[in-house]
Specification:
Family: Belongs to the peptidase M15D family.
Catalytic activity: D-alanyl-D-alanine + H2O = 2 D-alanine
Strand content: 15-25%
Largest sheet: 5 strands, mixed
Number of strands: 7
EC number: 3.4.13.22
Shape: globular
Structural class: alpha+beta
CATH topology: Muramoyl-pentapeptide Carboxypeptidase, domain 2
Function: Catalyzes hydrolysis of the D-alanyl-D-alanine dipeptide.
Helix content: 25-40%
Number of domains: 1
Order of helices and strands: EHEEHEHEHEEH
Radius of gyration: 16 Å
Strand order of the largest sheet: 2-4-5-7-6
InterPro entries: A_A_dipeptidase (IPR000755), Zn_M74/Hedgehog-like (IPR009045)
Distance between the termini: 35 Å
Length: 187
């Protein structure tokens, strides 16, 4: 049996918009963490992403990806900046991003504009919780729409971040060895 492999996700091959925020200073650290702009997912997650893209397309929507596979070294940078396990996985435990099975994303309407999700990506606040009470009705609707698309495609959500989805059972997989795979791409 062959090991699952990382697959590159591109607008041309997957019909998604990609804005890898950690390759820019537009992230919670205020500095670029990734040197190389490559969006990667482990093969089973890539298959589920294709399903999500198709489901969204039927609703005349598209997906914008903010993050996917994340090298362990990048996880350490995020943890050093915000050592809060509510939002950042402790590096010893490992993030499902570092397993290639997690993706951060939002929805785009037919004009290419992001749907209002009430907070920005990586807003590490209680308002970022999927079902945070008191958010406007249209925000709740948009979050539920994203949730439905991603669950139907085979992903699950975590409570604290409306943008984060991962494959069920991801914690049983090993972290990807960045040095052996040649994927070390930090600034």
């Amino acid at each position: 049996m062959t090991e699952p492999r990382l697959i590159e996700i591109t607008p041309a091959t997957h019909g998604v918009d990609i804005d890898l925020v950690y390759a820019t200073p537009r992230n919670l650290t205020g500095k670029a963490i990734y040197k190389e702009v490559r969006c990667l997912l482990l093969e089973p997650a890539e298959v589920a992403l294709r399903k999500a893209v198709e489901i969204a397309r039927h609703a005349r929507l598209a997906l914008r990806i903010f993050d996917a596979y994340r090298p362990r070294e990048a996880q350490q940078v995020l943890w050093d900046f915000l050592p809060d396990p509510t939002y950042i996985a402790e590096p010893g435990r490992g993030s499902n991003h570092s397993r290639g099975t997690a993706i951060d994303l939002t929805l785009l309407d037919a004009s290419g504009s992001e749907l209002d999700m009430g907070t920005g990506f990586d807003a590490m606040t209680i308002e970022s919780e999927h079902f945070h009470p008191g958010l406007p009705e249209h925000v709740q609707r948009n979050r539920l729409l994203l949730l439905g698309i991603m669950h139907a495609a085979g992903f699950m959500h975590i409570k604290s971040e409306w943008w984060h989805y991962e494959l069920p059972g991801s914690r049983t997989l090993s972290l990807i060895d960045d040095t052996e795979s040649g994927l070390l791409h930090l600034m």
